[in-house]
Amino acid sequence: MTAAIAPDLRAVLGGIADVLIPAAQGMPSATEAGVPDALLGEVVRARPDLAAPLVEVLTAVAADDAATAVARLRAGAGPGFVTVAVGFLTGFRFHGS
């Protein structure tokens, strides 16, 4: 299922996730924890309905640097930011399992 989300878009998700959850105080960043890779696969397997919206949102901000992407998603009022947040926060949940 992760193959449905191209590597370049997984990199976009990783950048966004690292802006929101950077490495700090001995804890890993989102990418260090595997959110855009193996953990995204777990999310998509558990919630296949998130794959298409996540691809759409990540494609819309793919040309932005990660901080700008986060700002645009937050300013966009709604589903874009929520979709990305659910995607990587669920990944962090799987990481803690």
Summary?
The protein has 97 residues and is an all-alpha fold. Helices cover 67% and strands 0% of the residues. α1 (7-20) packs across α3 (51-61) and α1 packs across α4.
Description:
- The chain is 67% helix and 0% strand.
- With 97 residues, it is mainly α.
- The protein is globular, with a radius of gyration of 12 Å.
- It has helices at 7-20, 35-46, 51-61, 66-75, 79-96.
- It has five helices and no strands.
Give keywords.
97 residues, mainly alpha, 5 helices
Could you describe the largest sheet, including whether it forms a barrel?
A: none
The ordered string of helix (H) and strand (E) elements is: HHHHH
Categorize the overall geometry.
Answer: globular
How many extended strands? 0
* Number of helical stretches of at least 4 residues: 5
Class by SSE composition = mainly alpha
- Percent in helix: 55-70%
Quaternary class: single chain
Strand proportion: under 5%
Detail the poorly predicted runs: none
